[in-house]
Specification:
Structural class: alpha/beta
CATH class of the largest domain: Alpha Beta
CATH architecture of the largest domain: 3-Layer(aba) Sandwich
Largest sheet: 8 strands, mixed
Helix content: 40-55%
Strand content: 15-25%
Bound molecules: adenosine-5'-triphosphate, magnesium ion
CATH topology of the largest domain: Rossmann fold
Shape: elongated
Order of helices and strands: HEEEHEHHEHEHEHEHHEEHHHHH
CATH superfamily of the largest domain: P-loop containing nucleotide triphosphate hydrolases
Strand order of the largest sheet: 5-4-6-7-3-8-9-10
Length: about 325
């Protein structure tokens, strides 16, 4: 069958408002959107996918949410009962946010095929949110059976989506090892949340090269905060909550780490305290402060010996 060159007209005017500068999707009209969110548990990755799904659904897309943990039906209604129902829904395009329940690769495969088929046929904008991408798209070489096919389908979303108006958002716990390389190689909107594991930095560092952003900046991010890499550049954003989630979930309190996280920072912080102030921390003062703070004896003992060490080092 002959086809016209696809034009992503919906992209020309659409925007994503993720808490920073609005992202103009016109910049993505020739590539489509391949968004990735990386962050630890409870970091706000699912919320990020839902926020984008809601915003795109309001601007002409049908958003399909692949829900491995059965947490989305309470927000957006019952999941489609089977792949045929998903197909019917993608044909009709009446429901703008469709939930698909699939807890592993085997359950995902038939739905994934239907999404590809419908995209191939209609070429109308569809946004697929794959939460917990590592469940469906492992980077392990020994992919067999359904796991291999699920990974292959996701690769097709990513690689051939552009011409089929298929846009993708996928979440992962870590930057490497959890998703296939192809996804990372082609991503064009990246959200990176708090990193608590300094060893993860080596994988992330190239992404941040030239941005002046370091591990300690990443380590200091709170729930719902991300570094957002888009065509417009890199920006730290505090993401709003998706409407449906906001209605049921508490908004996380933004907590910033105030304590120094490295030895260097620690010694610098210490050296900024003048000796007179440290000397003023006599035993009765320390006990009083400890009692006010409700400290148990162990941190008191540790703190007192750290204070003595510091004072001795200064003599
Ligand atoms: N942008 C945000 N602002 C404020 N609170 C938020 C935000 N995003 C998420 N939260 C809060 O954090 C909770 C966890 O968010 P979410 O489920 O999106 O995290 P997640 O990274 O997907 O976690 P998991 O890996 O466990 O699935 C939410 O239920 C909500 O209470
Ligand atoms: Mg989640």
């Amino acid at each position: 069958m002959k086809r016209n060159v696809i034009r992503r007209d919906e992209m020309l005017t659409a925007q994503l408002k993720l808490g920073g500068q609005p992202i103009e999707l016109a910049q993505y009209a020739s590539t489509g959107l391949l968004a990735i969110a990386v962050g630890p548990r409870g970091n706000g990755k699912t919320n990020a996918g839902l926020l984008m799904a809601e915003q795109l659904a309001a601007q002409g897309w049908v958003s399909v949410l692949i829900d491995p943990e059965s947490e989305l039906e309470a927000l957006y209604g019952a999941a489609v009962p089977d792949p045929e129902a998903l197909r019917a829904s993608l044909d009709a395009r009446a429901t703008r946010i469709v939930v698909v329940s699939a807890k592993d690769a085997s359950e995902f495969v038939p739905y994934g095929r239907v999404i590809l088929e419908a995209a191939e046929e209609h070429r109308k904008p569809v946004f697929v949110v794959i939460d917990e991408g590592q469940l469906f798209s492992t980077s392990s070489r020994a992919k067999t059976g359904d796991a291999g096919e699920a990974a292959d389908i996701i690769n097709q979303f990513a690689g051939r989506g552009r011409k089929r108006a298929l846009d993708l958002f996928i979440t992962a716990l870590r930057y490497t090892g959890t998703l296939q390389r192809l996804l990372f190689a082609n991503k064009n909107l990246t959200l990176i949340g708090c990193q608590e594991d300094p060893t993860a930095w080596s994988a992330l560092a190239p992404q941040f090269k030239g941005s002046q952003i370091g591990y300690s900046d990443l380590n200091a991010l709170s729930t719902g905060e991300f570094f957002c890499f888009s065509r417009g550049g890199v920006e730290k954003i505090r993401m709003p909550m998706a409407k449906a989630l906001k209605a049921v979930a508490p908004k996380a309190k933004i907590i910033h780490r105030a304590l120094p996280s490295t030895f260097n920072q620690w010694t610098r912080a210490m050296s900024e305290i003048p000796a007179e102030r440290l000397e003023a921390l006599t035993d009765p003062v320390v006990s009083l402060l400890g009692a006010v703070a409700g400290l148990t004896s162990q941190p008191m003992v540790t703190g007192i010996s750290a204070l003595q060490d510091e004072l001795e080092a200064r003599q």
